[in-house]
């Protein structure tokens, strides 16, 4: 009887040794993400699929996923936080040739490009005496798009010369075709004044233009808050600028006006940055533009004044420039004034009022709502 017992123990030890050596052999792990681009707080699904494709069972299996901290689980899950990442842990037992799929509802709490990183697999042998750990590379990404700012609520005219005319109308109404003459209100560019009619009427008159879809707009987005850029980075104001940029994009898309995006930042996940994008509109162009806004990082590819100078020498032609910046630094004044000379309209949206008075008088300027003038 004792020999039988020894024999069974020996068999168990041999099988346990085999199970230890092959516990993760013919085992596959995969992760499915239901969406690649999402809005902030928009729910999407992450499905974890584990497959044991062998005759031996896995008596203990733990899967540890390294995920971005901005990812939040909608319901209770085994999550621990560590620095910039969270670790999602799952434990299970797998029978021979079993496939287990677990689906979790999640959302992103902030804008950005988020990387789903490596996975650690920890499996135990049949007797639970030893464990085997293995790291597997499993990189995926999700881009959370910026919130869309309501321009009427986010910004207001700098000074009091614009009256009560809406922000949206000032940005979009880009004149091309002269259809008549009307009285000067004090907000129109000086070059639109019609001097013969002004002399006849005894008061300033300006040309009245028709709103057409022949306009082409370049949105120039800046993420520099100071010089050098890293010395006084204001993330809050940068994020407001990105949200305002999306609000402007939305308006041009709705109006069917071709628009392009230029930015001095690096786009996370793109090996080579195209800092000045071509103009266009439509579903594909819109999707690409707002995804680029989601990918904007906090490091610059070039100083903003260099980007403005590049726009002046660009072979592309634009009737309107919309410049969005966290701050109006002295280095930007001359390039913006020169840019105004080669466009029909230039709009500046700044998060503070510093140096706005140094801009050309016919540049339309806006400031973050709530700042004192």
Largest sheet: 6 strands, mixed
Total strands: the figure is 22
CATH architecture of the largest domain: 3-Layer(aba) Sandwich
Mean pLDDT reading:
83
Name the beta content range.
Answer: 35-45%
Based on CA atoms alone, the radius of gyration comes out at 30 Å
In total, the number of domains comes to 2
Outline the low-pLDDT stretches. Answer: none
The strand line-up of the biggest sheet is: 13-22-21-20-16-17
CATH class of the largest domain: Alpha Beta
Task: Examine the coordinates and then state which fold CATH places here, giving the name of the CATH topology of the largest domain.
Answer: Rossmann fold
Give the fraction of residues assigned to helices.
Answer: 25-40%
Helix and strand succession?
A: HEEEEEEEEEEEEHEHEHEEHEEHEHEHEE
- Give the overall form: elongated
- Counting H and I runs of at least 4 residues, what is the number of helices? 8
What is the first-to-last residue Cα distance? 97 Å
Structural class determined from secondary elements: alpha+beta
Protein name: DUF58 domain-containing protein
Organism: Lutispora saccharofermentans
